[in-house]
Design brief:
Elements lengths: L2 E6 L3 H11 L6 E7 L3 H11 L2 E3 L2 H5 L5 E4 L3 H13 L3 E4 L8 H14 L3 E3 L7 H10 L5 E9 H4 L16 E7 H7 L5 H8 L8 E7 L5 E8 L4 E8 L4 H14 L6
Parallel strand pairs: 1-2, 1-4, 2-3, 4-5, 5-6, 7-9
Antiparallel strand pairs: 7-10, 8-9, 10-11
């Protein structure tokens, strides 16, 4: 019997996940529902992918999905995570920056524990969480973690880090230096993958984070440097399309249903 999957969000990422099921990439699953805020868009999505359009979380849970994948917004995690977990479904989270609300994170963990459900945190544009956890566990002292993100000047122009003349730079220029917690405090709900990486390694307050503005740059580029007393890691993840976030959800679903798990 196939596992039931529901999606939160009708955008590009949810479409990519749904298309993976449609194309046979996840034969272990059937898509039973999509939850959206716009009735018209939600129905168009549901009609195309042959699932039920839902406008509230109760309608989703009435279909008894085993997994609910969030590919929408931090607000969706805030609004629905505890209800999903209490309702007997596992949740896959892309908008991990919502868990910068520590009280929410702790409540979600408690709810999952009490209901035998799980919170799966997707790697998005980074990943390697198994290696990061391994490094943290095997080191007898706290690991040192630094994440550096390359971003286009156009992206930076839409952030608090823009300054006059940045659009005319001819070489990379650092525009932010701080921590994973600091970036979320300054620019909430945007750098989800940075917060997720921090949760998997040194923690949000101890994980250092830099942003470099790079002229003529496209896509995503994250470098994760880890140093401990027993291990050193240097990971660079480059992607030309943010669909990598959706495919990280597909990977989680694949592993959850497979007798062989790649971690």
């Amino acid at each position: 019997m196939k596992k039931k999957l529901a999606l939160i969000g009708c955008g590009y990422l949810s479409q990519t996940i749904a298309q993976a099921i449609h194309d046979g990439r996840l034969p272990e699953y059937e898509l039973v529902a999509v939850l959206g805020r716009d009735p018209v868009r939600t129905k168009i999505f549901a009609d195309y992918f042959n699932c039920k359009p839902c406008l509230d979380i109760d309608a989703v849970l009435a279909l008894t999905p085993e997994f609910v994948a969030e590919a929408a917004s931090a607000e969706s995690v805030i609004d629905y995570a505890e209800t999903i977990l209490a309702g007997g479904a596992h949740i896959i989270v892309l908008s991990t920056a919502a868990f910068a609300d520590v009280a929410l994170y702790e409540r979600a963990i408690k709810t999952a524990s009490e209901n035998n459900t799980k919170i799966y945190i997707a790697g998005g544009a980074t990943g390697g969480f198994n290696l990061l956890q391994t490094a943290s566990l095997m080191s007898s002292t706290p690991i040192d973690v630094t994440i550096t993100s390359k971003k286009s000047t156009g992206f930076i122009a839409r952030t608090p880090f823009y300054k006059q003349g940045l659009m005319n730079i001819s070489k990379p220029e650092r525009v932010f230096t701080g921590t994973a917690k600091g970036i979320i405090d300054t620019f909430p709900y945007v750098f989800n993958v940075v917060y997720a990486t921090a949760l998997a390694s040194a923690g949000p307050e101890a994980t250092k984070f830099n942003i470099d503005a790079v002229p003529n740059f496209t896509g995503d580029d994250y470098r994760i440097e880890v140093n401990g007393d027993q291990v050193a890691l240097d990971l660079t993840i480059k992607s030309g399309d943010y669909a990598i976030a959706a495919w990280s959800v597909v990977s989680i679903l694949k592993n959850a249903a497979s007798p062989v798990v790649f971690m």
